[in-house]
């Protein structure tokens, strides 16, 4: 056999790429899983800056930065790789990044991929995340352009596994598709997240307030929501409402 007839030699592949061939398709085009922009709060002082805040602790120069755990690149280890590989095979390019922290995995999901991914997680025999026990919101004012996060906890009864999905939304346009068509019991959780944080779940069958009165203005668990309140009367004294007390840098 001549040199020109020789069979081309394929480049060697790592054990991870052979066992989990779809992990490379996990991230959306243009997503940079190396970006570590996870700062969620910057605080000064013990309870405030000391500049008119009423903080008399003496720790006015203290500076603290609070950040999320960071970003994890594949392989993730253990069964995390198995499910991530299968998720990427069924819904390619659904994630912006992934975080593994304290034995838990969180997939940060593009909003337009959320419902498709949830349906695959519920129905695929290799995944079988049959239940969404919780949907909740978080407000990170420091994360410009993705201030509001919606967090979905998923549970597999079949395999006794738990994962977390997280969607990041801009404060200016906090819309995300409802997962009620996939997980009907998420109905009330999405209503609560709308009530407390102002996230709009498109396609929800009845997105109304569930804790606050229907005519309530604002969303009380956002960090920019005013404390408000009314005076509380005690024998011989009156305690001012929270909005009139000392202002702490929370």
Strand content: 25-35%
Widest sheet: strand ordering: 3-4-7-6-5
Distance between the termini: 76 Å
State the fourth-level CATH superfamily of the domain at 14-35 and 71-219: NADH:ubiquinone oxidoreductase Nqo5 subunit
Per the CATH scheme, the topology name of the domain at 14-35 and 71-219 is: Beta Polymerase, domain 2
Query: What's the CATH architecture name of the domain at 14-35 and 71-219?
Result: 2-Layer Sandwich
Which value, in Å, is the CA radius of gyration?
Answer: 23 Å
EC number: 7.1.1.-
Keywords: Cell membrane, Membrane, NAD, Oxidoreductase, Quinone, Translocase, Transport
Enzyme class: translocase
Protein name: NADH-quinone oxidoreductase subunit C
Give an overview of the whole structure:
Keywords: Cell membrane, Membrane, NAD, Oxidoreductase, Quinone, Translocase, Transport. It is found in: Cell membrane. Its EC number is 7.1.1.-. It holds the Pfam family Complex1_30kDa. By secondary structure, the chain is α+β, with helices and mostly antiparallel strands. The chain has a domain at 14-35 and 71-219: Beta Polymerase, domain 2. Helix content is 15%, strand content 25%. The protein is built from four helices and eleven strands, in the order H-E-E-H-E-E-H-E-E-E-E-H-E-E-E. The chain has helices spanning 15-19, 79-90, 114-123, 187-197; strands at residues 39-44, 63-67, 95-101, 104-109, 131-139, 148-156, 161-169, 175-177, 200-202, 232-234, 237-239. The strands form four sheets. It has a five-stranded mixed sheet. Strands 1-2 form a two-stranded antiparallel sheet. A two-stranded parallel sheet has the order 8-9. The N and C termini lie far apart (76 Å).
């Amino acid at each position: 056999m001549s040199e020109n007839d020789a069979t081309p030699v394929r480049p060697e592949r790592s054990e991870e790429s052979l066992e989990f061939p779809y992990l490379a398709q996990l991230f959306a085009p243009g997503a940079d899983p190396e970006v570590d922009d996870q700062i969620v709060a910057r605080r000064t002082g013990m309870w405030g800056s000391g500049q008119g805040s009423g903080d008399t602790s003496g720790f006015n120069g203290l500076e603290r930065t609070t950040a999320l755990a960071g970003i994890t690149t594949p392989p993730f280890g253990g069964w995390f790789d198995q499910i991530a590989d299968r998720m990427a095979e069924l819904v390619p390019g659904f994630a912006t990044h992934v975080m593994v922290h304290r034995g838990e995995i969180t997939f940060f999901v593009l909003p337009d991929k959320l419902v498709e991914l949830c349906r695959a997680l519920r129905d695929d025999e290799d995944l079988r995340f049959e239940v969404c026990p919780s949907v909740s919101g978080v407000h990170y004012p420091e994360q410009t352009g993705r201030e509001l996060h919606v967090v979905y906890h998923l549970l597999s009864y079949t395999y006794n596994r738990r994962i977390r999905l997280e969607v990041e939304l801009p404060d200016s346009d906090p819309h995300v598709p409802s997962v009620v068509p996939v997980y009907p019991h998420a109905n009330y959780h999405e209503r609560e997240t709308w009530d407390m944080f102002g996230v709009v779940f498109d396609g929800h069958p009845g997105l109304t307030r569930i804790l606050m009165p229907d005519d309530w203005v604002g969303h009380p668990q956002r960090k920019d929501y005013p404390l408000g309140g009314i005076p509380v009367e005690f024998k011989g004294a009156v305690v001012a409402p929270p909005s009139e007390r000392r202002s702490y840098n929370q």
